Protein backbone atom coordinates (compact mmCIF):
# COMPACT_ATOMS: atom_id res chain seq x y z
CA UNK A 1 0.00 0.00 0.00
CA UNK A 2 2.39 2.76 -1.15
CA UNK A 3 1.37 6.26 -0.09
CA UNK A 4 2.78 9.70 -0.77
CA UNK A 5 3.44 12.20 1.98
CA UNK A 6 0.30 14.21 1.18
CA UNK A 7 -2.00 11.30 2.00
CA UNK A 8 -4.19 11.88 5.07
CA UNK A 9 -3.13 10.52 8.45
CA UNK A 10 -5.95 7.96 8.57
CA UNK A 11 -4.66 6.40 5.31
CA UNK A 12 -1.16 6.00 6.76
CA UNK A 13 -2.71 4.41 9.87
CA UNK A 14 -4.62 1.96 7.67
CA UNK A 15 -1.61 1.09 5.52
CA UNK A 16 0.53 0.40 8.59
CA UNK A 17 -2.11 -1.90 10.07
CA UNK A 18 -2.32 -3.94 6.85
CA UNK A 19 1.36 -4.08 5.93
CA UNK A 20 2.33 -5.11 9.46
CA UNK A 21 -0.20 -7.96 9.38
CA UNK A 22 -2.01 -6.55 12.42
CA UNK A 23 -5.33 -6.28 10.60
CA UNK A 24 -6.93 -7.28 7.33
CA UNK A 25 -10.41 -5.88 7.84
CA UNK A 26 -11.12 -2.18 8.27
CA UNK A 27 -14.25 -0.26 9.18
CA UNK A 28 -13.97 3.24 7.74
CA UNK A 29 -16.49 5.60 9.32
CA UNK A 30 -17.07 9.32 9.68
CA UNK A 31 -16.64 11.68 6.76
CA UNK A 32 -16.84 8.82 4.26
CA UNK A 33 -19.24 10.53 1.84
CA UNK A 34 -16.84 13.39 1.10
CA UNK A 35 -14.55 13.97 -1.88
CA UNK A 36 -10.76 13.67 -1.75
CA UNK A 37 -8.12 15.33 -3.99
CA UNK A 38 -6.53 12.88 -6.45
CA UNK A 39 -4.40 13.73 -9.50
CA UNK A 40 -6.24 16.90 -10.44
CA UNK A 41 -9.69 15.63 -9.54
CA UNK A 42 -11.95 15.41 -6.51
CA UNK A 43 -13.04 11.81 -6.17
CA UNK A 44 -15.08 9.56 -3.90
CA UNK A 45 -13.54 7.61 -1.05
CA UNK A 46 -13.97 4.35 -2.96
CA UNK A 47 -12.15 5.71 -5.99
CA UNK A 48 -9.39 7.11 -3.77
CA UNK A 49 -8.89 3.79 -1.99
CA UNK A 50 -8.72 1.89 -5.27
CA UNK A 51 -6.25 4.34 -6.83
CA UNK A 52 -4.03 5.08 -3.82
CA UNK A 53 -4.09 2.17 -1.38
CA UNK A 54 -4.89 -0.75 -3.65
CA UNK A 55 -2.57 -0.19 -6.59
CA UNK A 56 -0.70 -3.41 -5.79
CA UNK A 57 -3.83 -5.57 -5.62
CA UNK A 58 -4.69 -7.92 -8.49
CA UNK A 59 -8.45 -8.22 -7.87
CA UNK A 60 -10.65 -5.55 -6.29
CA UNK A 61 -14.35 -6.19 -5.67
CA UNK A 62 -16.88 -3.52 -4.76
CA UNK A 63 -20.31 -3.98 -3.26
CA UNK A 64 -23.11 -1.57 -2.44
CA UNK A 65 -26.84 -2.24 -1.96
CA UNK A 66 -27.79 -0.37 -5.13
CA UNK A 67 -25.39 -1.87 -7.65
CA UNK A 68 -24.63 -5.21 -6.06
CA UNK A 69 -21.24 -6.87 -6.48
CA UNK A 70 -18.98 -5.43 -9.19
CA UNK A 71 -15.31 -5.77 -10.13
CA UNK A 72 -13.09 -2.69 -10.14
CA UNK A 73 -9.96 -4.56 -11.14
CA UNK A 74 -9.05 -8.10 -12.22
CA UNK A 75 -11.91 -9.07 -14.53
CA UNK A 76 -9.58 -11.17 -16.69
CA UNK A 77 -8.42 -13.22 -13.72
CA UNK A 78 -12.00 -13.83 -12.62
CA UNK A 79 -13.21 -14.84 -16.06
CA UNK A 80 -11.38 -18.18 -15.93
CA UNK A 81 -12.79 -18.93 -12.48
CA UNK A 82 -16.33 -18.13 -13.62
CA UNK A 83 -16.11 -20.13 -16.85
CA UNK A 84 -18.75 -22.84 -16.96
CA UNK A 85 -20.56 -21.72 -13.79
CA UNK A 86 -24.34 -21.52 -13.92
CA UNK A 87 -24.29 -18.48 -11.59
CA UNK A 88 -21.69 -16.44 -13.46
CA UNK A 89 -23.69 -13.19 -13.10
CA UNK A 90 -22.55 -10.99 -10.23
CA UNK A 91 -25.13 -11.06 -7.40
CA UNK A 92 -26.96 -8.06 -5.98
CA UNK A 93 -28.15 -9.56 -2.71
CA UNK A 94 -25.66 -9.00 0.14
CA UNK A 95 -25.44 -12.59 1.35
CA UNK A 96 -24.89 -13.93 -2.15
CA UNK A 97 -22.25 -11.23 -2.77
CA UNK A 98 -20.35 -12.08 0.43
CA UNK A 99 -20.51 -15.79 -0.37
CA UNK A 100 -19.22 -15.16 -3.92
CA UNK A 101 -16.16 -13.31 -2.61
CA UNK A 102 -15.61 -16.02 0.01
CA UNK A 103 -15.85 -18.75 -2.65
CA UNK A 104 -13.21 -17.02 -4.74
CA UNK A 105 -10.86 -16.72 -1.77
CA UNK A 106 -11.32 -20.42 -0.97
CA UNK A 107 -10.61 -21.20 -4.60
CA UNK A 108 -7.31 -19.30 -4.35
CA UNK A 109 -6.49 -21.09 -1.09
CA UNK A 110 -7.04 -24.47 -2.79
CA UNK A 111 -4.77 -23.48 -5.69
CA UNK A 112 -2.10 -22.46 -3.20
CA UNK A 113 -2.44 -25.82 -1.40
CA UNK A 114 -1.86 -27.56 -4.75
CA UNK A 115 1.21 -25.47 -5.41
CA UNK A 116 -0.52 -23.47 -8.11
CA UNK A 117 -1.52 -19.84 -8.46
CA UNK A 118 0.59 -16.74 -8.07
CA UNK A 119 -0.52 -15.47 -4.64
CA UNK A 120 -3.08 -12.93 -5.78
CA UNK A 121 -3.72 -9.85 -3.70
CA UNK A 122 -7.50 -9.46 -3.29
CA UNK A 123 -9.54 -6.64 -1.79
CA UNK A 124 -13.23 -5.96 -1.36
CA UNK A 125 -14.82 -2.57 -0.65
CA UNK A 126 -18.33 -2.68 0.81
CA UNK A 127 -20.09 0.67 0.75
CA UNK A 128 -23.12 1.29 2.96
CA UNK A 129 -22.23 -1.63 5.23
CA UNK A 130 -24.37 -0.05 7.95
CA UNK A 131 -27.41 -0.57 5.68
CA UNK A 132 -26.48 -4.21 5.06
CA UNK A 133 -25.51 -5.00 8.66
CA UNK A 134 -27.35 -2.44 10.78
CA UNK A 135 -26.93 -2.18 14.52
CA UNK A 136 -29.89 -2.48 16.82
CA UNK A 137 -31.22 -5.64 15.15
CA UNK A 138 -30.62 -8.09 17.98
CA UNK A 139 -32.36 -11.40 17.39
CA UNK A 140 -32.49 -11.06 13.60
CA UNK A 141 -31.02 -14.36 12.40
CA UNK A 142 -30.40 -13.29 8.81
CA UNK A 143 -28.48 -10.19 9.90
CA UNK A 144 -26.52 -12.13 12.53
CA UNK A 145 -25.55 -14.90 10.10
CA UNK A 146 -24.40 -12.42 7.46
CA UNK A 147 -22.38 -10.54 10.12
CA UNK A 148 -20.74 -13.84 11.03
CA UNK A 149 -19.69 -14.44 7.41
CA UNK A 150 -18.18 -10.95 7.10
CA UNK A 151 -16.47 -11.26 10.47
CA UNK A 152 -14.83 -14.51 9.31
CA UNK A 153 -12.87 -12.50 6.72
CA UNK A 154 -11.06 -10.82 9.61
CA UNK A 155 -10.45 -13.78 11.89
CA UNK A 156 -10.72 -17.18 10.19
CA UNK A 157 -8.74 -19.31 7.77
CA UNK A 158 -8.33 -19.38 4.81
CA UNK A 159 -9.04 -15.63 4.61
CA UNK A 160 -6.44 -14.54 7.15
CA UNK A 161 -3.80 -16.73 5.43
CA UNK A 162 -4.01 -14.76 2.19
CA UNK A 163 -3.14 -11.29 0.93
CA UNK A 164 -6.72 -10.14 1.42
CA UNK A 165 -8.11 -6.85 2.72
CA UNK A 166 -11.74 -5.91 3.28
CA UNK A 167 -12.92 -2.32 3.65
CA UNK A 168 -16.33 -1.75 5.25
CA UNK A 169 -17.59 1.81 4.84
CA UNK A 170 -20.23 3.25 7.21
CA UNK A 171 -21.34 6.78 8.02
CA UNK A 172 -21.42 6.15 11.77
CA UNK A 173 -19.77 3.41 13.77
CA UNK A 174 -22.76 3.03 16.08
CA UNK A 175 -25.02 2.31 13.10
CA UNK A 176 -23.06 -0.87 12.31
CA UNK A 177 -23.73 -4.34 13.74
CA UNK A 178 -21.64 -4.72 16.93
CA UNK A 179 -20.23 -8.11 15.83
CA UNK A 180 -18.35 -6.18 13.16
CA UNK A 181 -17.94 -2.70 14.65
CA UNK A 182 -16.34 -3.85 17.90
CA UNK A 183 -14.65 -7.10 16.92
CA UNK A 184 -11.03 -7.15 18.18
CA UNK A 185 -9.67 -8.28 14.79
CA UNK A 186 -11.34 -5.37 12.98
CA UNK A 187 -9.50 -2.04 12.75
CA UNK A 188 -11.71 1.02 13.15
CA UNK A 189 -10.45 3.92 11.03
CA UNK A 190 -12.13 7.28 11.62
CA UNK A 191 -12.16 9.47 8.51
CA UNK A 192 -12.30 13.07 9.80
CA UNK A 193 -13.47 16.20 8.08
CA UNK A 194 -10.66 17.71 5.99
CA UNK A 195 -7.92 19.64 7.74
CA UNK A 196 -6.43 22.85 6.39
CA UNK A 197 -3.85 20.99 4.29
CA UNK A 198 -6.47 18.89 2.50
CA UNK A 199 -8.79 21.88 2.08
CA UNK A 200 -5.83 23.69 0.51
CA UNK A 201 -5.36 20.87 -2.02
CA UNK A 202 -9.06 20.92 -2.85
CA UNK A 203 -9.15 24.71 -3.19
CA UNK A 204 -6.16 24.69 -5.53
CA UNK A 205 -8.02 22.28 -7.80
CA UNK A 206 -11.29 24.25 -7.57
CA UNK A 207 -9.44 27.45 -8.53
CA UNK A 208 -8.22 25.74 -11.68
CA UNK A 209 -11.64 24.32 -12.51
CA UNK A 210 -13.71 27.41 -11.64
CA UNK A 211 -11.49 30.52 -11.56
CA UNK A 212 -14.49 32.86 -11.82
CA UNK A 213 -15.75 31.83 -8.39
CA UNK A 214 -12.72 33.26 -6.57
CA UNK A 215 -11.95 36.92 -5.99
CA UNK A 216 -9.17 38.42 -3.94
CA UNK A 217 -8.68 35.93 -1.13
CA UNK A 218 -5.68 33.65 -0.97
CA UNK A 219 -6.14 29.96 -0.25
CA UNK A 220 -4.47 30.18 3.16
CA UNK A 221 -7.07 32.66 4.40
CA UNK A 222 -9.92 30.60 2.95
CA UNK A 223 -8.79 27.29 4.44
CA UNK A 224 -8.45 28.92 7.86
CA UNK A 225 -11.95 30.34 7.56
CA UNK A 226 -13.53 27.10 6.34
CA UNK A 227 -12.10 24.56 8.79
CA UNK A 228 -14.94 22.18 9.62
CA UNK A 229 -16.49 22.29 6.15
CA UNK A 230 -16.55 19.21 3.91
CA UNK A 231 -14.94 19.28 0.46
CA UNK A 232 -18.25 18.18 -1.09
CA UNK A 233 -20.07 21.19 0.36
CA UNK A 234 -17.25 23.47 -0.74
CA UNK A 235 -17.29 22.04 -4.26
CA UNK A 236 -21.06 22.52 -4.54
CA UNK A 237 -20.77 26.13 -3.37
CA UNK A 238 -17.97 26.95 -5.84
CA UNK A 239 -19.81 25.32 -8.74
CA UNK A 240 -22.99 27.24 -7.95
CA UNK A 241 -21.14 30.56 -7.75
CA UNK A 242 -19.25 29.84 -10.99
CA UNK A 243 -22.51 29.05 -12.77
CA UNK A 244 -24.06 32.28 -11.50
CA UNK A 245 -20.99 34.28 -12.49
CA UNK A 246 -20.53 35.37 -8.88
CA UNK A 247 -17.09 35.62 -7.27
CA UNK A 248 -16.63 34.92 -3.56
CA UNK A 249 -14.57 37.53 -1.73
CA UNK A 250 -12.90 37.36 1.71
CA UNK A 251 -16.03 38.42 3.61
CA UNK A 252 -18.18 35.87 1.77
CA UNK A 253 -16.17 32.88 2.97
CA UNK A 254 -16.84 33.74 6.61
CA UNK A 255 -20.53 34.25 5.85
CA UNK A 256 -21.05 30.97 4.02
CA UNK A 257 -19.31 28.88 6.68
CA UNK A 258 -22.45 28.95 8.84
CA UNK A 259 -24.54 27.72 5.92
CA UNK A 260 -22.09 24.96 4.97
CA UNK A 261 -21.50 23.72 8.53
CA UNK A 262 -25.20 23.58 9.40
CA UNK A 263 -25.95 21.88 6.08
CA UNK A 264 -23.27 19.23 6.60
CA UNK A 265 -24.59 18.59 10.12
CA UNK A 266 -28.14 18.02 8.83
CA UNK A 267 -29.65 20.56 11.21
CA UNK A 268 -28.19 18.94 14.32
CA UNK A 269 -26.28 22.08 15.32
CA UNK A 270 -26.57 25.84 15.07
CA UNK A 271 -23.37 27.62 14.11
CA UNK A 272 -22.98 31.03 15.81
CA UNK A 273 -20.17 33.39 14.87
CA UNK A 274 -20.60 36.04 17.57
CA UNK A 275 -19.50 39.65 17.31
CA UNK A 276 -20.39 40.47 20.91
CA UNK A 277 -17.87 40.74 23.74
CA UNK A 278 -18.01 40.64 27.52
CA UNK A 279 -18.40 44.43 27.45
CA UNK A 280 -21.97 43.79 26.24
CA UNK A 281 -22.85 41.72 29.31
CA UNK A 282 -23.70 43.18 32.71
CA UNK A 283 -22.18 40.95 35.40
CA UNK A 284 -20.26 41.19 38.67
CA UNK A 285 -16.66 42.33 38.04
CA UNK A 286 -15.23 39.13 39.57
CA UNK A 287 -17.10 36.99 37.05
CA UNK A 288 -15.97 38.97 34.00
CA UNK A 289 -12.42 39.13 35.32
CA UNK A 290 -12.32 35.34 35.68
CA UNK A 291 -13.66 34.76 32.17
CA UNK A 292 -11.19 37.23 30.66
CA UNK A 293 -8.32 35.52 32.49
CA UNK A 294 -9.38 32.18 31.02
CA UNK A 295 -9.56 33.69 27.54
CA UNK A 296 -6.04 35.08 27.99
CA UNK A 297 -4.84 31.60 28.97
CA UNK A 298 -6.59 30.13 25.92
CA UNK A 299 -4.96 32.61 23.57
CA UNK A 300 -1.56 31.99 25.13
CA UNK A 301 -2.07 28.19 24.82
CA UNK A 302 -1.43 27.84 28.56
CA UNK A 303 -3.61 24.75 28.78
CA UNK A 304 -2.73 23.45 32.23
CA UNK A 305 -4.75 26.20 33.91
CA UNK A 306 -7.55 26.23 31.34
CA UNK A 307 -10.91 24.70 32.31
CA UNK A 308 -12.40 21.93 30.19
CA UNK A 309 -15.84 23.45 30.53
CA UNK A 310 -18.26 25.83 32.25
CA UNK A 311 -21.70 25.47 33.73
CA UNK A 312 -23.83 28.62 33.57
CA UNK A 313 -26.75 28.18 35.95
CA UNK A 314 -29.42 30.44 37.31
CA UNK A 315 -33.12 31.24 37.08
CA UNK A 316 -34.85 31.39 33.72
CA UNK A 317 -34.24 34.64 31.88
CA UNK A 318 -30.81 35.47 33.35
CA UNK A 319 -29.10 35.64 29.94
CA UNK A 320 -27.16 32.37 29.88
CA UNK A 321 -27.23 32.05 26.09
CA UNK A 322 -26.30 35.71 25.69
CA UNK A 323 -23.28 35.26 27.96
CA UNK A 324 -22.10 32.32 25.83
CA UNK A 325 -22.22 34.52 22.72
CA UNK A 326 -20.30 37.28 24.53
CA UNK A 327 -17.69 34.80 25.76
CA UNK A 328 -17.20 33.39 22.25
CA UNK A 329 -16.95 36.84 20.70
CA UNK A 330 -14.39 37.91 23.30
CA UNK A 331 -12.33 34.78 22.59
CA UNK A 332 -12.75 35.09 18.82
CA UNK A 333 -14.05 31.54 18.38
CA UNK A 334 -17.33 30.18 16.95
CA UNK A 335 -20.10 28.60 18.99
CA UNK A 336 -21.58 25.26 18.04
CA UNK A 337 -24.97 24.98 19.72
CA UNK A 338 -26.34 21.46 19.95
CA UNK A 339 -29.93 21.09 18.79
CA UNK A 340 -32.13 18.03 19.19
CA UNK A 341 -30.03 15.04 18.13
CA UNK A 342 -32.44 12.43 19.50
CA UNK A 343 -34.31 10.36 16.91
CA UNK A 344 -37.04 7.74 17.08
CA UNK A 345 -35.15 5.24 14.92
CA UNK A 346 -32.94 2.65 16.61
CA UNK A 347 -29.30 3.75 16.49
CA UNK A 348 -30.04 7.10 14.83
CA UNK A 349 -29.51 9.18 17.97
CA UNK A 350 -26.06 7.69 18.53
CA UNK A 351 -25.24 8.22 14.86
CA UNK A 352 -26.35 11.84 15.05
CA UNK A 353 -24.12 12.40 18.06
CA UNK A 354 -21.17 10.83 16.20
CA UNK A 355 -21.74 13.29 13.37
CA UNK A 356 -21.76 16.22 15.81
CA UNK A 357 -18.52 15.04 17.45
CA UNK A 358 -16.91 14.69 14.02
CA UNK A 359 -17.74 18.31 13.29
CA UNK A 360 -16.48 19.48 16.70
CA UNK A 361 -13.11 17.80 16.16
CA UNK A 362 -12.73 19.41 12.74
CA UNK A 363 -13.60 22.97 13.74
CA UNK A 364 -10.47 23.64 15.75
CA UNK A 365 -10.97 26.06 18.62
CA UNK A 366 -14.67 26.43 19.38
CA UNK A 367 -17.24 26.55 22.16
CA UNK A 368 -19.77 23.72 22.28
CA UNK A 369 -22.94 25.02 23.89
CA UNK A 370 -25.61 22.74 25.35
CA UNK A 371 -28.67 24.70 26.44
CA UNK A 372 -31.20 23.17 28.83
CA UNK A 373 -28.48 20.68 29.71
CA UNK A 374 -30.59 18.98 32.36
CA UNK A 375 -32.94 17.82 29.58
CA UNK A 376 -30.48 17.34 26.72
CA UNK A 377 -27.71 15.31 28.31
CA UNK A 378 -29.82 12.42 29.56
CA UNK A 379 -29.21 10.18 32.55
CA UNK A 380 -26.77 7.42 33.34
CA UNK A 381 -29.75 5.18 34.15
CA UNK A 382 -33.15 6.18 32.83
CA UNK A 383 -34.87 2.87 33.55
CA UNK A 384 -36.42 0.76 30.83
CA UNK A 385 -38.51 3.46 29.16
CA UNK A 386 -36.14 4.15 26.27
CA UNK A 387 -34.32 0.81 25.91
CA UNK A 388 -31.15 2.29 27.38
CA UNK A 389 -30.88 5.11 24.81
CA UNK A 390 -30.36 7.87 27.39
CA UNK A 391 -27.61 5.88 29.08
CA UNK A 392 -25.77 5.32 25.80
CA UNK A 393 -26.00 8.98 24.85
CA UNK A 394 -24.90 10.00 28.33
CA UNK A 395 -21.86 7.73 28.06
CA UNK A 396 -20.88 9.12 24.64
CA UNK A 397 -21.16 12.75 25.81
CA UNK A 398 -19.35 12.10 29.09
CA UNK A 399 -16.48 10.42 27.27
CA UNK A 400 -16.14 13.27 24.77
CA UNK A 401 -16.29 15.95 27.47
CA UNK A 402 -13.47 14.34 29.45
CA UNK A 403 -11.16 13.75 26.47
CA UNK A 404 -8.04 15.67 27.47
CA UNK A 405 -6.98 15.92 23.81
CA UNK A 406 -9.75 18.50 23.50
CA UNK A 407 -8.30 20.79 26.19
CA UNK A 408 -7.49 24.08 24.51
CA UNK A 409 -9.44 23.15 21.39
CA UNK A 410 -12.98 22.63 22.64
CA UNK A 411 -14.63 24.49 25.49
CA UNK A 412 -17.84 22.87 26.73
CA UNK A 413 -20.50 25.21 28.12
CA UNK A 414 -23.65 23.86 29.74
CA UNK A 415 -26.57 26.08 30.65
CA UNK A 416 -29.44 25.13 32.93
CA UNK A 417 -31.93 26.61 35.36
CA UNK A 418 -31.99 23.21 37.11
CA UNK A 419 -28.36 22.16 37.46
CA UNK A 420 -29.36 19.82 40.28
CA UNK A 421 -30.93 17.55 37.63
CA UNK A 422 -27.66 17.17 35.72
CA UNK A 423 -25.77 14.01 36.62
CA UNK A 424 -23.08 14.75 39.21
CA UNK A 425 -20.52 12.84 37.15
CA UNK A 426 -20.96 15.26 34.23
CA UNK A 427 -20.36 18.25 36.50
CA UNK A 428 -17.15 16.93 38.03
CA UNK A 429 -13.76 18.63 37.53
CA UNK A 430 -12.18 17.40 34.34
CA UNK A 431 -15.46 17.91 32.50
CA UNK A 432 -16.93 21.04 34.07
CA UNK A 433 -14.27 22.88 36.06
CA UNK A 434 -16.04 26.22 36.60
CA UNK A 435 -19.68 26.64 37.65
CA UNK A 436 -20.97 30.20 37.43
CA UNK A 437 -24.32 31.35 38.85
CA UNK A 438 -26.16 34.04 36.88
CA UNK A 439 -28.52 35.82 39.23
CA UNK A 440 -31.17 38.56 39.18
CA UNK A 441 -30.57 42.08 40.41
CA UNK A 442 -30.27 42.54 44.16
CA UNK A 443 -30.51 46.36 44.42
CA UNK A 444 -32.73 48.97 42.80
CA UNK A 445 -29.61 50.58 41.32
CA UNK A 446 -28.82 47.33 39.50
CA UNK A 447 -32.45 47.09 38.33
CA UNK A 448 -32.31 50.67 37.01
CA UNK A 449 -29.07 50.05 35.10
CA UNK A 450 -30.39 46.82 33.56
CA UNK A 451 -33.74 48.29 32.58
CA UNK A 452 -32.17 51.43 31.13
CA UNK A 453 -29.78 49.34 29.00
CA UNK A 454 -32.67 47.39 27.51
CA UNK A 455 -34.83 50.48 26.97
CA UNK A 456 -32.00 51.88 24.82
CA UNK A 457 -32.81 49.26 22.20
CA UNK A 458 -36.19 50.94 21.73
CA UNK A 459 -34.85 54.49 21.78
CA UNK A 460 -36.63 55.38 25.01
CA UNK A 461 -34.00 55.10 27.77
CA UNK A 462 -34.51 57.93 30.28
CA UNK A 463 -31.36 57.20 32.26
CA UNK A 464 -30.88 55.23 35.47
CA UNK A 465 -31.27 58.34 37.63
CA UNK A 466 -34.69 59.12 36.14
CA UNK A 467 -35.86 55.55 36.70
CA UNK A 468 -34.79 55.67 40.34
CA UNK A 469 -36.78 58.89 40.81
CA UNK A 470 -40.10 57.35 39.70
CA UNK A 471 -42.83 57.19 42.37
CA UNK A 472 -43.21 53.41 42.09
CA UNK A 473 -40.03 51.60 43.12
CA UNK A 474 -38.24 49.44 40.58
CA UNK A 475 -38.59 45.70 41.22
CA UNK A 476 -35.80 43.70 42.78
CA UNK A 477 -34.75 40.26 41.53
CA UNK A 478 -35.12 41.51 37.96
CA UNK A 479 -33.67 39.21 35.30
CA UNK A 480 -32.58 40.32 31.81
CA UNK A 481 -35.48 38.34 30.37
CA UNK A 482 -38.01 40.05 32.62
CA UNK A 483 -36.44 43.47 31.97
CA UNK A 484 -36.62 42.93 28.21
CA UNK A 485 -40.28 41.94 28.46
CA UNK A 486 -40.93 45.09 30.50
CA UNK A 487 -39.12 47.22 27.89
CA UNK A 488 -41.27 45.76 25.10
CA UNK A 489 -44.45 46.53 27.06
CA UNK A 490 -43.24 50.07 27.79
CA UNK A 491 -42.54 50.64 24.09
CA UNK A 492 -45.97 49.31 23.17
CA UNK A 493 -47.61 51.53 25.80
CA UNK A 494 -45.83 54.62 24.46
CA UNK A 495 -46.69 53.80 20.84
CA UNK A 496 -50.36 52.99 21.38
CA UNK A 497 -51.24 55.76 23.85
CA UNK A 498 -48.89 58.51 22.69
CA UNK A 499 -47.56 59.21 26.19
CA UNK A 500 -43.94 60.08 26.95
CA UNK A 501 -41.60 57.13 27.62
CA UNK A 502 -41.20 57.93 31.30
CA UNK A 503 -44.98 58.10 31.78
CA UNK A 504 -45.40 54.73 30.05
CA UNK A 505 -42.76 53.21 32.32
CA UNK A 506 -44.36 54.67 35.45
CA UNK A 507 -47.79 53.35 34.46
CA UNK A 508 -46.44 49.83 33.98
CA UNK A 509 -44.50 49.87 37.26
CA UNK A 510 -47.68 50.60 39.18
CA UNK A 511 -49.16 47.26 38.18
CA UNK A 512 -45.98 45.22 37.65
CA UNK A 513 -46.13 41.49 38.26
CA UNK A 514 -42.95 39.37 37.93
CA UNK A 515 -43.21 36.86 35.05
CA UNK A 516 -41.80 34.03 37.20
CA UNK A 517 -43.40 33.23 40.58
CA UNK A 518 -41.20 34.38 43.45
CA UNK A 519 -40.97 30.93 45.04
CA UNK A 520 -39.74 29.41 41.75
CA UNK A 521 -37.22 32.22 41.28
CA UNK A 522 -35.86 31.87 44.81
CA UNK A 523 -35.60 28.08 44.49
CA UNK A 524 -33.61 28.34 41.26
CA UNK A 525 -31.39 31.00 42.86
CA UNK A 526 -30.59 28.71 45.81
CA UNK A 527 -29.62 25.91 43.45
CA UNK A 528 -27.39 28.19 41.36
CA UNK A 529 -25.62 29.67 44.39
CA UNK A 530 -25.06 26.19 45.84
CA UNK A 531 -23.41 25.10 42.55
CA UNK A 532 -20.99 28.06 42.38
CA UNK A 533 -17.31 27.11 42.36
CA UNK A 534 -16.38 30.50 43.85
CA UNK A 535 -18.55 32.74 46.05
CA UNK A 536 -16.93 35.78 44.45
CA UNK A 537 -19.38 35.19 41.61
CA UNK A 538 -22.28 35.69 44.04
CA UNK A 539 -23.45 39.11 45.33
CA UNK A 540 -22.82 39.38 49.11
CA UNK A 541 -26.54 39.64 49.88
CA UNK A 542 -27.19 36.24 48.24
CA UNK A 543 -24.24 34.29 49.65
CA UNK A 544 -26.28 32.93 52.59
CA UNK A 545 -28.26 30.95 50.01
CA UNK A 546 -25.21 28.72 49.52
CA UNK A 547 -26.12 26.96 52.75
CA UNK A 548 -29.84 26.89 51.98
CA UNK A 549 -31.97 23.95 50.99
CA UNK A 550 -32.31 22.99 47.32
CA UNK A 551 -35.60 21.18 47.90
CA UNK A 552 -38.55 22.99 46.30
The number of helical segments is: 21
Low-confidence stretches: none
Number of strands: 14
N- and C-termini, Cα separation: 64 Å
Output the strand order for the largest sheet: 5-4-6-7-1-8
Could you characterize what this model shows?
With 552 residues, the chain is of the alpha/beta class. Helices cover 43% and strands 13% of the residues. The protein is built from 21 helices and 14 strands. The protein has helices at residues 9-19, 45-53, 75-82, 94-113, 129-132, 141-155, 178-181, 196-209, 219-225, 231-244, 250-264, 285-299, 320-331, 348-363, 373-376, 389-401, 444-455, 464-468, 480-497, 501-510, 518-531, and strands at residues 25-30, 36-38, 41-43, 59-64, 68-73, 122-126, 164-170, 186-191, 269-272, 309-313, 335-338, 366-370, 410-416, 434-437. A 6-stranded mixed beta sheet has the order 5-4-6-7-1-8, sandwiched between helices. Strands 9-11-12-13-10-14 form a 6-stranded mixed beta sheet, sandwiched between helices. A two-stranded antiparallel ribbon has the order 2-3. The longest helix has 20 residues, at 94-113. The radius of gyration is 30 Å and the shape is elongated. It starts with 8 loop residues before the first helix and ends in a 21-residue tail after the last helix.
Amino acid sequence: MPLDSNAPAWAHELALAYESGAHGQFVLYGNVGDRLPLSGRLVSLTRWLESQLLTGFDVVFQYDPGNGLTVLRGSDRLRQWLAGRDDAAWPREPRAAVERVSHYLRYLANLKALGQGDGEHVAVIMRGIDQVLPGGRAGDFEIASLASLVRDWASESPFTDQAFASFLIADNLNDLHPQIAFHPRVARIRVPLPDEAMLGQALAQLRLDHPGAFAGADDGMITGALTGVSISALQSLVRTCAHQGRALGPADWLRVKKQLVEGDASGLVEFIDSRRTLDDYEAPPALKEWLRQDIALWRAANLRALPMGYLFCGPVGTGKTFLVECLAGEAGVPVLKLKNFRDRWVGSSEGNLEKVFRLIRALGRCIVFIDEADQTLGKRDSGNGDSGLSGRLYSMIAQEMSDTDNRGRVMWVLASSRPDLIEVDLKRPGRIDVKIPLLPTTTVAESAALLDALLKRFGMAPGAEALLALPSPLPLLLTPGAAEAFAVKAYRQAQTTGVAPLEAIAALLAGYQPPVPLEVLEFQMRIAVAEATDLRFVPPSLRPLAAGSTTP
